[in-house]
Amino acid sequence: MATLGTLKQALRQKCTAAKLPSTQPLSDAQYSAGFDILLQDLGWMTYQDFIIPQLSQLLASLVDSRRHISVLEIGPGPKSVLGYLSAPLRRGIRRYSAVEPRGLFATRLEKWVCPSSETESPLPCLESPPGIYQTSFNLDSDFTSSGTGTSRDDEKFDIILFCHSMYGMEPKRSFIERALEMLDDRLQGGMVVVFHRDGSLHLDGLVCHQTTCYPIGVTRVTDNEEVLDCFAPFIAGFIMLDIDMDKRVRAEWREVCRALGRRDEDHPDHLVFSSPDVMATFTRGATMLGELTAQVPLVSIQDKTIKNREARLHRPASIVRPTEILHVQKCVRWALKYKASLTVLGGGHSSHCVLPNVVSIDMAAFDQIHLHPVADDEAKFSSSSGSASDKLVVAGAGCNTGDIVRKTMAAGVIVPLGGRPSVGAGLWLQGGIGHLARKHGLSCDAVVGAVMVSAASGQVLYIGRVPSQFRPAGAVRPENEHDQLWGIKGGGTNFGIVISVIFKSYAAPKYSVRNWIVSLSDSQAARVKLSNFDELVARKLPRNCSADAYLYQDGAGKLQLGVTMYESSTTEPLSEVPASVVGTVLRPEDNTKVVDSVGLFDTELYMSGMHGGHGSGKTSSFKRCVFLKHIGGATVTNNLIAAMETRPPPLCYLHLLQGGGAITDVAADATAFGCRDWDFACVITGVWPRDQDATEVARSAVRWVYNVAMDLLPLSSGVYGADLGPDPRDTALAVKAFGSNRPRLARLKQVSDPFNVLAHACPLPKAPMEPKLIILVTGESCAGKDYCAEVWVSVFTTLCTHNNRALTACAISISDATKREYAATTGADLNRLLGDRAYKEQHRPALTEFFQDQVLQRPGLPEEHFLSVVHDAAALNVDVLLVTGMRDEAPVAALSHLVPDSKMLEVRVQASHETQRARHEGQLSEDKNGKSVDGTDHKDSKEGRLDVTALDCSPTSSSLIFDNDTTGDKAAKSFAEHYLLPFLNEDLQRLADMMRPVPDFPRPGIMFRHVLDIAQQPGGLATCTSLLQSHFLRDWTKVDVIACCEAGGFVYASALAARVDIPLALIREAGKLPPPTVSVIKSASHISSWASNDSSEKRIEMNRDLISKDSSVVVIDDVLATGKTLCAVLQLLVDEAGISAEDVTVMVVAEFPAHRGRKLLRRQGFGQVHIQSLVVLGGA
């Protein structure tokens, strides 16, 4: 199956080779006919699955930040792709212009965007008539002189879109630069967006802001003369001027199409062509490469050996080769300044080490290797590392495996690395599966420290064990050092640019290497041999031995099973026992050799024994790897054999590397490499002759690799992340690449690389969407917390909808994690701990002691358990999460910053001592009367008392209190309907949508939310006032005063005070109120401290005796972030005016939990003040 690009070359070559006479461009009708064919059938799927979703993501960010955007589209055709966007995005487009050179298309486009009065425009919120210009987009012409609309040539736009309309524009860089000049400079975020056929968008040093590929696009056309006679000229771009000649050429073109197109069995009357697509976006920074290359040395791509065949075909914007750490810092800071991304070039084995129109950093200069003796103060740590030697190995990121092995072996030690000498740091840090893995673990398990440049700031960091002489000047330990070290041990290229890695080392062994090659007569013989190999050989080997298996076909097409057994030992002679075991199962070995660690590289069967050896450099390959257990099982074996039967080029094979042993000794969550429970790593390898790169032979091999990987995925224990890159086909594989560590990795990526500078590494999942509402259900034992939580779950799932779908809710006990760990440590029955209260009560003292001991060792354990519960719920797309089993004091203040995008509240369930005692006794006895989990009969009786006037009977200022003294679920349901469901009111989301985000204000890196903008929108102030009134959890008739501080509080408090008819108490900056007054010092608020260089403290004041000491006061403000402003207000009210803290309620429109304002207020003595917020927002 040829690409459309290959087809275009072939069609044009027919004319060039024959030196045919003049050609002419297609007429509008001819172009339209070809265009329609291209978009039919599978061709439309590229739009549906790639172009429209990508464009939607881009526009959504702009619409969210601006609400009104302007678009200029170049060459849209008869109908803009914008018409396929969602209604909210189309409504966000307030100005639209288009340049369309074809008259037929321009006319149709104008009718489409300005339909008759009976039909709504697809862009219904345009504030002026669209400008449709029938002309070409030229570098120096005024396109506005021709067409309709009111646009001007100097008009600026937020988005300029080329959707498959740059063909024929040369040089493309100049046209994009022309478009960049037309972006609106007044607001950041504007961009030029280009969709184009992949492989042909060469921009001569112009730098992408973002690039995404879609390699699986295809075009399918009917194989008949009429269709092909329209399709072929459209792809070629012309017809012949002479009519007779044109007929002859079209006949030849039909044969070219048939020769290059693929026929599928399901559609034998159709021709299929590959149509890979790419999206590239550009900002004003696209032309600023010179600023970087003036500071950092360059290297030509022709002077750099790149192993990966796909990467060799890419044209990067530039390859820089830093020679010092400062150069790397300059690269990162340049990327941050211009919102560009970077790739890192080490060993050159990944497809994404070099990408089109992206700057690549060649780390070759950082190739030093040092052996460092373990210091005395590290002796204790070293002794805990098993058989590790007394030497650390410090390896620069420009080294490869061969360099390290040669250097360390000379000193009598070794680092457990992978099997190929040319691989670089990317593979060490993302796994590293070698022949010592069963004995010493993966390469990433040997990592004890690293030096890296932060992708978030350009700061040099050192993490873990980095000897002092290898810490660069100015390097610092990051606050999240533990997380960073955890992350690079399995996901290492995603969080920063690694400068050097520190490994622990082991005594260098010798290896005995033995090979067997067995011919398999048929599929049944293959099943038997694989099963015997798995069960009788591999499972019985000691840790110092590993056995690899290969499935491949010889030159005659016959299936072969190759086996290589490696035995390592630091003492001689090497054992003969494992070899005799294999010989019994297979047959006598073909050859044996003893080698050192350097010689080991040449013993791989695929390098020397298969197909004459793949080590000659005359082949290219493509690999993906899945982890398998029980390869001798019928299902797995059948899939492996079926894979070999369907392989396209004859050189493709499967390589099974043995795992287990020390790999499984490391807990799945101890490092980012979370896939530990597997017997074999199955490397699916597509191979083809190098002279067929970028041909259908290569593409068919790649398709085979992905097809086999997807077939094996349901049977697998995980996927090897080191192979994965930005190809969309890797997304499904990446889901299983890190096991249960995915949420933690996603959060670490978000923190470590917030601007996505390293956007093209192994695709980590985006941080999961946290539940919209988190309810912490607290209370004493036997108050009925779990029972109430389950009742409230049923209320949410039964009565609530969101975006026209039912809400999802669940209840999870936070103590379950401790119970699991306790059971694993002590041997207690986990099922009974989780479900048998009597059994749990027997173990409660030991459980409590166990948890306390854990917290002493891991002070952050409560937060870890809480986040684990939240991420489990997020993985299930839960909207409302109820967390039980919590005994923390003031949990909202303590935990809300961990989930800044979720609304969190506490509901304290209480019951009388008599009720608790009765339930306790009922739960310890056999449940013979059909009682529920809380030990009550649950027959409806009088409603339970709902105490909302004593919201703070405990020091917890965020709790609702539900009195659960009655039987039945009626009271609990009523409580949920009246006091919990309102937190999901859709008006709250509408209110949040009115607070538009403003990027990089008042300083770069801050996403400002314009809370006061609510009052500037139609109906905004009324909506906010209504919500403040209705969501107040106390009684407005018992409130004496509404207090507010300028300026934000004045806006909302005034409207609310008028609505509820309660007087205002105005708090102003000192000097603005007449005496007598009382005043306190107020520190600058979060945003004010950024917006002004003046960070000096100020005083705020209110009139003395304005509020009596026994008054009930509600404080209204626009924002709670750091809490500094509200802290000053409360000091004024409580400390100066003498009002009791219990009589004060704070209500804010928007809360930013990440800044931990509640914690500050509690620490300053205001824990008894009740705090409410309408909306919670992440970020600034």
UniProtKB/TrEMBL annotation:
<feature type="compositionally biased region" description="Basic and acidic residues">
    <location>
        <begin position="914"/>
        <end position="944"/>
    </location>
</feature>
<dbReference type="GO" id="GO:0006695">
    <property type="term" value="P:cholesterol biosynthetic process"/>
</dbReference>
<dbReference type="InterPro" id="IPR027417">
    <property type="entry name" value="P-loop_NTPase"/>
</dbReference>
<keyword id="KW-0808">Transferase</keyword>
<keyword id="KW-0274">FAD</keyword>
<feature type="region of interest" description="Disordered">
    <location>
        <begin position="910"/>
        <end position="944"/>
    </location>
</feature>
<dbReference type="Pfam" id="PF04275">
    <property type="entry name" value="P-mevalo_kinase"/>
</dbReference>
<keyword id="KW-0560">Oxidoreductase</keyword>
<dbReference type="GO" id="GO:0004631">
    <property type="term" value="F:phosphomevalonate kinase activity"/>
</dbReference>
<dbReference type="InterPro" id="IPR029063">
    <property type="entry name" value="SAM-dependent_MTases_sf"/>
</dbReference>
<comment type="similarity">
    <text>Belongs to the oxygen-dependent FAD-linked oxidoreductase family.</text>
</comment>
<protein>
    <submittedName>
        <fullName>Phosphoribosyl transferase domain protein</fullName>
    </submittedName>
</protein>
<dbReference type="InterPro" id="IPR016166">
    <property type="entry name" value="FAD-bd_PCMH"/>
</dbReference>
<dbReference type="InterPro" id="IPR036318">
    <property type="entry name" value="FAD-bd_PCMH-like_sf"/>
</dbReference>
<dbReference type="Pfam" id="PF00156">
    <property type="entry name" value="Pribosyltran"/>
</dbReference>
<dbReference type="InterPro" id="IPR005919">
    <property type="entry name" value="Pmev_kin_anim"/>
</dbReference>
<dbReference type="GO" id="GO:0071949">
    <property type="term" value="F:FAD binding"/>
</dbReference>
<dbReference type="Pfam" id="PF01565">
    <property type="entry name" value="FAD_binding_4"/>
</dbReference>
<dbReference type="InterPro" id="IPR000836">
    <property type="entry name" value="PRTase_dom"/>
</dbReference>
<dbReference type="InterPro" id="IPR029057">
    <property type="entry name" value="PRTase-like"/>
</dbReference>
<dbReference type="InterPro" id="IPR050416">
    <property type="entry name" value="FAD-linked_Oxidoreductase"/>
</dbReference>
<dbReference type="InterPro" id="IPR016169">
    <property type="entry name" value="FAD-bd_PCMH_sub2"/>
</dbReference>
<feature type="domain" description="FAD-binding PCMH-type">
    <location>
        <begin position="312"/>
        <end position="508"/>
    </location>
</feature>
<dbReference type="InterPro" id="IPR006094">
    <property type="entry name" value="Oxid_FAD_bind_N"/>
</dbReference>
<dbReference type="GO" id="GO:0005737">
    <property type="term" value="C:cytoplasm"/>
</dbReference>
<keyword id="KW-0285">Flavoprotein</keyword>
<dbReference type="GO" id="GO:0016491">
    <property type="term" value="F:oxidoreductase activity"/>
</dbReference>
